Amino acid sequence: MFEKIKHGLSASFFHQDSHRPVNLEDTRGVGIRVEQLNKFFGPNHVLKDIDLEIYAGETFCIIGPSGTGKSVLLKHIVKLETPDSGEIFIDDMPIFAQGQGAVARDYRYSMVFQSSALFNSLTVGENVGLWLREKRVCKEAQVREIIKQKLEMVGLVGKEELRTSELSGGMKKRVAIARSLAMNPDLILYDEPTAELDPVTTDELANTIIKLKESTRNTTVIVTHDLNFALYISDRIAMMHGGSIVEVGTPREIKRSENPIVRGFIYTTTKGIRGE
Ligand SMILES: Nc1ncnc2c1ncn2[C@@H]1O[C@H](COP(=O)(O)OP(=O)(O)OP(=O)(O)O)[C@@H](O)[C@H]1O
Fold it and tell me: What atom in ligand 1 is closest to the CA of residue 192?
């Protein structure tokens, strides 16, 4: 059963395109450039001429109201969706180009899904060690050491043997993050990490992500409609509205933006408390 779960299913949250041996020590942040990206679902024009640059090593949030295309954009970055036109470059290499110019990309990325997407039949430790065991990246003793270390990084020391069904929502999110960290990703993506979390757990999660950035060099991209969370943890923020990027800036610049759409979003999400 464990073998069945391990194979195939984990590909959606871990990825390495190249078939070179994995060197877990060798991590870096990757730069992402989105150029003129368009996506239609039938008549629904969901992404409209998206141009965006995310710098290597930064924590970048994509904010905006529900249904504006944030998750669809994130899915393009990890190739879970294909654009109708446009391209995404990671470290200047196109990720959708086919044929002669296509090169195997040598970077690792992982995604933390809104639902956490843990395997309930496995323990916390087995969830965290899934990719390492599937790829046979290192010996079992080292896998156990990495599991311990990653759980420590997210504040779950000694929880290896717990069943994921025994965990609270906030703990599940932490396990999902530890699982993503197990591969030492160059790029880590979060889809609505604070959804379903109470304010205290949200705050803890924000501090965990900030702390992780002190010990990793990766690029972090987060989709959220939680403005305060984004302002707290981001180096820069992009605001999406109606399938377009309407503003990009540092938290300070976003708070001071004169753009009426940004101001409206700040006003509604802070119930009228002005962002100074
Ligand atoms: N696979 C799909 N097929 C058809 N339409 C889709 C698909 N995925 C997303 N959409 C549509 O694309 C639009 C943008 O969805 P998306 O999930 O990106 O919104 P979002 O900004 O992330 O909002 P939320 O925070 O509510 O998830 C929505 O109208 C949605 O219904």
Answer: 25
Considering only CA atoms, which residue is closest to atom 28 of ligand 1? Answer: 67
Q: How far is CA 76 from the centre of its chain?
A: 12
What tokens were used for 116? Answer: 């956490």
Nearest CA to ligand 1 atom 18: 69
Distance 223 CA to ligand 1 centre (A): 12
Domains of the chain (ranges; CATH) run: 2-18+28-97+107-269 (3.40.50.300)
pLDDT in tens, 149-168: 889 888 888 888 998 888 88
pTM of the prediction? 0.84
Sign, Cα dihedral of 210, 69, 73, 276? negative
User: What six digits make up the tokens of 230?
Assistant: 């984004």
pLDDT tens-digit readout, 116-147: 788 888 899 999 998 888 877 788 888 899 99
Please give the structure tokens belonging to residue 182: 């197990």
Instruction: Give backbone dihedrals phi and psi of 214, rounded to 5 degrees, phi first.
Output: -75, -25
Whether the complex's predicted ipTM surpasses the cut of 0.90? yes
Please give the number of the atom of ligand 1 that sits closest to the Cα of 243.
14
163 secondary structure, DSSP code: B
Helix (H) or strand (E) holding 86: strand 85-90
